[in-house]
């Protein structure tokens, strides 16, 4: 990749390398849950993937970043598959600290992941959680996540929340297969 990537090229790369993740039926759950402001967890994950690729590109990191692992880790970093705004009697009280691990556990059930992907998903909440990512891809996901989350949380669009279809619980989706 000798030239700088355009927005369209980045979106195409994410669609190509992230296809298996994007098309998985459990992604339906992410499409039904708001993450920050009026952005669903699915939209947030795609944004993080695009931003992480943009950052790697602009920082000229392609000689040491695995593009496919970066995209898949970014798309799966919030694969915790519940709406964290539903407090569930306090079960998700520690969401900020635990959801990286929850996302990894879910992702391992649905996908074959390499070590870069696993480590980057599990430690994406660093420095809120104590263990730093082991790979540069993990730092890119962490940084892109923080930037996206901040922009989404403070966007004026957050006041325009549309009603989302009710998220089908994991078990129900499994039962219909
Ligand atoms: Fe997260
Ligand atoms: Fe996130």
Automatic annotation (TrEMBL):
Keywords: Hydrolase. InterPro entries: HD/PDEase_dom, HD_domain. The keyword Hydrolase applies. This is HD domain-containing protein. Residues 37-159 form the HD/PDEase domain. GO terms for molecular function: hydrolase activity.
